[in-house]
Write a structure and sequence with these properties.
This protein has one helix and nine strands; from the N terminus they run αβββββββββ. The chain is 15% helix and 50% strand. It is α+β, with helices and mostly antiparallel strands. The chain starts with a helix and ends with a strand. Strands 1, 2, 3, 4, 5, 6, 7, 8 and 9 form a nine-stranded antiparallel β-sheet that branches. It has one domain (24-121): Immunoglobulin-like, CATH 2.60.40.
Length: 123
């Protein structure tokens, strides 16, 4: 009987440890959250601006030296925009074709950490 109790405890402990380590993936800025390379990327895509917020286990990421290039796809139309640091986010202002169904690819480069590719779709 003790062996079953030990095996049961050994099975439950790792899952309990992982459950406590989860972080919230819900949008904080009204955008779309995508997880890539152990980081969360929240894309806020609007016709007048594109914003990208980065967090690592719920904590904002320092954006010194960061940049991103976002490619927007609307059917056969393709447009690209460069995002630059603007406070706690990467951002570009202008006129963008962003509607329900717009797909996007963001290539995000962080100083000293390399690049990540993030795919999203506006719902």
């Amino acid at each position: 009987m003790k062996l079953y109790a030990i095996l049961f405890a050994a099975f439950l402990l790792p899952s309990a440890a992982f459950a406590g380590g989860k972080h919230d993936h819900s949008p904080k800025h009204g955008g779309i959250v995508v997880e890539a390379k152990d980081m969360d990327y929240e894309i806020v895509a609007k016709p007048e601006m594109i914003q990208l917020y980065l967090s690592d286990h719920g904590k904002p990421v320092k954006l010194d030296g960061a940049k991103a290039k976002v490619t927007l796809l609307n059917g056969s139309e393709k447009s690209e925009v460069e995002l630059q640091p603007a406070g706690d986010k990467l951002e570009a202002k202008g006129a963008f074709k962003v509607t329900k169904g717009t797909k996007g690819i963001a290539l995000v480069t962080l100083a000293g950490k390399g690049a990540a590719t993030v795919r999203f779709e506006v719902k």
